[in-house]
Write a structure and sequence with these properties.
With 145 residues, this protein is mainly α. It is built from eight helices and two strands, in the order H-H-E-E-H-H-H-H-H-H. It is 57% helix and 7% strand.
C-alpha cells in the first residue's frame, strides 16, 4: 500500500474524512479548527497540498500520535527530536510553540515523544509527492518508527 493510500485510510479511520474522500478533498480548502476550551480558532495551513502539512499529517500517522491537543504536543516533540523542520520556517515556530506548551501541559508524554524522536528520522527534508508514492511499510522502516 502506498503512503498516500495509507494516509487516506488514516484520515477516514480517525474521522477526519468521510469514506470515499481523499486527502486532496481535505486539503482543497478546509480550515483546521483548533478547540481551546469553548473557543474555536480557525487555522489555514500554508502550502497544504504539497507542503509541510502533508508531511506533518504523515508523522501523525506513521509515529502514531493522535490529532488532539496532547497528540499535537507529542508529535511536535517527536518532530523536533527526529531532526526538526528543515527549511520550513513557519513549522519551526509552530512546532517549538507546541513543544513548549507540551512541556508545561503534558511534560512526561512530550519528553517521551522527543526522546523517541531522537531514535528516528522525519520527513521534513523530503519531497511530499515522492513520499506519498512510497510503500508505507518501507517508509516506516526508513524513518525507524
Amino acid at each position: 500500500m502506498t503512503t498516500e493510500q495509507a494516509l487516506n485510510r488514516h484520515f477516514v479511520a480517525t474521522g477526519i474524512l468521510k469514506e470515499g474522500c481523499t486527502r486532496e478533498d481535505w486539503y482543497a480548502g478546509h480550515w483546521i479548527r483548533i478547540q481551546l476550551g469553548r473557543l474555536e480558532l480557525p487555522f489555514f495551513p500554508i502550502l497544504r497540498r504539497n507542503g509541510p502539512v502533508v508531511l506533518h499529517d504523515l508523522h501523525h500517522m506513521l509515529a502514531g500520535y493522535p490529532t488532539d491537543w496532547r497528540g499535537e504536543m507529542e508529535v511536535a516533540g517527536w518532530e523536533l527530536g527526529s531532526g526538526g523542520c528543515g527549511w520550513h520556517g513557519f513549522y519551526w515556530i509552530d512546532r517549538l510553540t507546541a513543544f513548549l506548551l507540551g512541556l508545561v501541559m503534558a511534560t512526561g508524554p512530550t519528553l517521551r515523544a522527543f526522546t523517541r524522536g531522537r531514535k528516528c528520522r522525519n520527513l521534513f527534508r523530503r519531497n511530499p509527492e515522492e513520499v506519498l508514492r512510497t510503500d508505507a511499510d518501507e517508509l516506516r522502516a526508513q524513518l525507524g518508527v
